[in-house]
């Protein structure tokens, strides 16, 4: 018996359970399909709003994140339209500053963090063989705090949104220079999504450390779960610091304190240290889960085990430790003592070693494999190529004398889009195409997915590769207009064209999602022949995930199970043949 | 070792070669077009150092990108799934993995060494050339713990660069202690060629960032801090840049430029600016004096018109003047800035009078009241105390005040 890609199994799919009869003698331990009766799943919108099921919460996270992706994307397109030609007067400086503030804040706090939280929420319990998160009600609280944060922040559109960039540097963000309450709504957003992420991280941490399937030792934990665990620890370390920073800003703005006001003994650099102590780990908080996704997808479609499991886990932990200690490389141009410049430069170089280790391990996971190219795999490869360049430009910026020239220019804008879009967004797209069948029970359209992938990847490279040149030609970031010198007009026009291609690519994926939800092919429990436990249960999984949790004997439990089924059925066939003859 | 697919070594090596050459050629040709390296020009050693360090790292980056990218492409082409392909079940290879970890580390050590070799040229200013402007030694605007970047002989033309929403102000350091008569300009800075120019960068309101791409890196102007950089231009010309840190709605229009001229031309420009400032100062002083004279006359006329005071003025009360001042004429209360035990004041804007007036003569107290800048107590700046007591107090009031102070401090 084999699992096939299209389900021809009995139509009562949700009642289908797979189980091992572990009590039976070893030679009879055949996994088998049994049908149980389960109580019907509650339906209706109210059942979603009140759900504490990690899968429904995960899906709501993802849907909300994609709504914010559309908003952030529209903001990005408006920014690119304004910059398409030199000396453009399409947008006022006020609108432009508000747009890039909202774009950055939205993409980080309202798209990527909830998208990752959604994927993690959905998959972590399934991958470790748990029936839900450790604290289901706290999990729902996390979701609704994030949505409240998004509403509060977008509420500022009705009056005057913040104009201080997603970094909101003091004293520009103080009342003297930002009198409108846009900054206050930004502070409120950071608090709400911060508390949301903090609770979520604690929940994830407790779930992973306590609720793993029997036999799932740390050495058999799926790599995606390792990265989510590491990310949760980083969130727990760094979120309190940004919460403190925005609280100080709030009291400066409204309660007469002067933490960041140099005329009263405060320091603008205090804000920068506090912000980047969160802000730099945040980069790894966004890309580490992406690394985990890639580490799950590459082995499946290369039909090979991951190359160097232990090295990848060690690299993940190494990146987390070093990444937490290099924040001041965002501050090479402020007055800092020389030894700090050297310390933060060398520290940042060190991050490149575990990152390089990972890239080589991923390439060698494919090496001598039999590689298949579904859209999830294409995005994973797109991730590798894009993130590679983002990593290399990171070395330029880590070198502080070179950073003196490149800091706060479009070179930096290009660099962090290569790392964040290449590292986090592409991997989340891969995750979407890979796990959509599990979440919905339906396959996504591969053909449309390929077109979408080509446009997304091509559009991305057209948009952002040329921005390195704009930065090298003297264009600072966050300017609403520029003079037509040093070919800046050409560079920006190319970039704007690319951004619309990129947007079309993302739009096609949204179309794909909507279409596939209605008319996608039935997926069956394990359409990809995956390695991890989520493929053990039907798609979509029942409320309790698993009736019986199999014992885990390696990092690829589903491979073991498939192999066992094959072996048993071969024995059975041979027995049949023997009996027949 | 099962052969996974039909080997196509020739085809693959050709493909690999093309990818490698393309990956190397594209950046090389682009470099000629000036797309992949920072702007250069002006011949200042720091900018050239940064540019050459950038190009070295760019070289390393190209090799790594072509190497890893090539390996990636070769892998996915060579090992793509095909009929009968079997994936080799390997879990890792310690030797390989240690190899690329050490390889990455070595490359970073190499980049670190190159950086430290180049650092001196980028960070430390050289002396001015013989054909540059001769400048005084150790004259610079500085504050805080950080040290200004000065050449070995300590001689540079120091300019205070002050970022303000949305313009740059440049103040040229000179040897006298009066900072109000220094040559200054807005927007465009004029400097002599072949001369080391050191900059003290500050901000008035929010954070800004000083950046002229062709003259080296950018340095942030942070309120409450002084940041330092330098340049030494050999080519005359105008070098443009702009604020590089978001500073508000006018950020994009906060442009900066540096005009480099020969030392002789610079001296001419500097002298003209200085003369203009002195002339303006003189003019302002004349206007001010005329206005003061006019006001005094008007006051006298008004007093004359009002006739003699109805009742004889109550005897001047020194303590009252000290504590409350004479608001009608604009004489501020001494006690709002000075501490004096007898009057029960403890403000610390000005020096504690119990300390500084101890043992002073009445004449000295009077002189210090009338001309506060003549003798400045240690730890206090000039121009803090109003110098209007000669006009805002009558002779009788002044004498009463002095007598009160004398008695309060020296206990007569």
What does this structure look like?
The complex is a heterodimer of chains A (581) and B (412). By secondary structure, chain A is an all-alpha fold. Chain A contains 15 helices and 2 strands. In chain A, helix 7 runs antiparallel to helix 10 and helix 8 packs antiparallel against helix 9. The two termini of chain A are 21 Å apart. The N terminus of chain A is likely disordered. With 412 residues, chain B is an alpha+beta fold. Chain B folds into 3 domains: 115 residues, no CATH class; 118 residues, Immunoglobulin-like, CATH 2.60.40.420; 93 residues, Cytochrome c-like domain (Cytochrome Bc1 Complex, Chain D, domain 2). Chain B is 42% helix and 14% strand. Chain B contains 9 helices and 12 strands. In chain B, a hairpin with a 2-residue loop joins strand 1 and strand 2. The longest helix of chain B is centred in the C-terminal third of the chain and has 44 residues. The interface between A and B is large, with 86 and 87 residues.
Features:
heterodimer, A: 581 residues, mainly alpha, Cytochrome C Oxidase, Chain A, two-stranded antiparallel sheet, 15 helices, 2 strands, 65% helix, 1% strand, globular, disordered N terminus, B: 412 residues, alpha+beta, Immunoglobulin-like, Cytochrome Bc1 Complex, Chain D, domain 2, five-stranded mixed sheet, three-stranded mixed sheet, 12 strands, 42% helix, elongated
